[in-house]
Specification:
The chain has 147 residues and is mainly alpha-helical. The protein is built from seven helices and no strands. The longest helix has 29 residues.
Amino acid sequence: MNTPSFAEMFRRLFAAEGQGRSAKTVEVFGWLILAESVGIVFAPQLAVKLLHLPEMVEQTENYFRLVGLLVGGLGMLYVAAGRLNAQGFVFASLLDRPLVPPAMLVLWLTGILPWQLAAAFAVQDFASFLWTLSAWRAEQRVAAPVG
């Protein structure tokens, strides 16, 4: 297999040629969490108010910003994988995202996360999982041989 050059990968990243429906859902999810991360990094108090979270002290706000930065990195991975039609990543996301709601439930039940934040992550990840799964199955039906 021939590895594409860095320049070729950038061209494919901007052109999104041959992007399937499931890869498009991964890209859109990436843009969503990337936008959320920008809000968390630059306006953490707004995120706190929107989610009705308890007031934060300065150190907590800085940790919240750090989480926003990490979520932004994840968002960039989802955007790039979606734009490049990386089917392996799309499949891996179908394995990962349904695990978020149970993980959020555990974090809420143990008092680590407030229910609003746990619910927001759980609903967002599970809804995007269902969207990607639906697109994946539709692609499989179209690709299946007739007969």
